[in-house]
Amino acid sequence: LIIPKKLQKNLPYKDKPKVMALKKKKEKVAVVRDIHESQVASMMKKLKTIYNEKREEERRAKVKRLKDFKKKIEAEEARKLQRQRKMKKDVFRTLSKTESKKTQF
Questions:
Q1: Where is the composition biased (Basic and acidic residues) (predicted)?
Q2: Domain edges within the chain
Q3: pTM for the model
């Protein structure tokens, strides 16, 4: 379908014909590796695998370490809260004793 240029100018953008460049099919060249190149590629692949495994192991260790640290902090907070409650209880007990002594006199 061919639309004259003058008519195309008057059309809104959504109705204008879109010109797309035709993509040429590229032929891919087959890469043939010699023995040394294939050995190097194999070695690099192994090294990358080892590196990735090591990183994953370090990540797991870090997560475990953080989990243990959080647990330790929570335990300390619980102990601190328990001590504060006990201190408050003791303070109020002594205050009530002194109040009761004052009321007796």
A1: 89-105
A2: 73-105
A3: 0.51
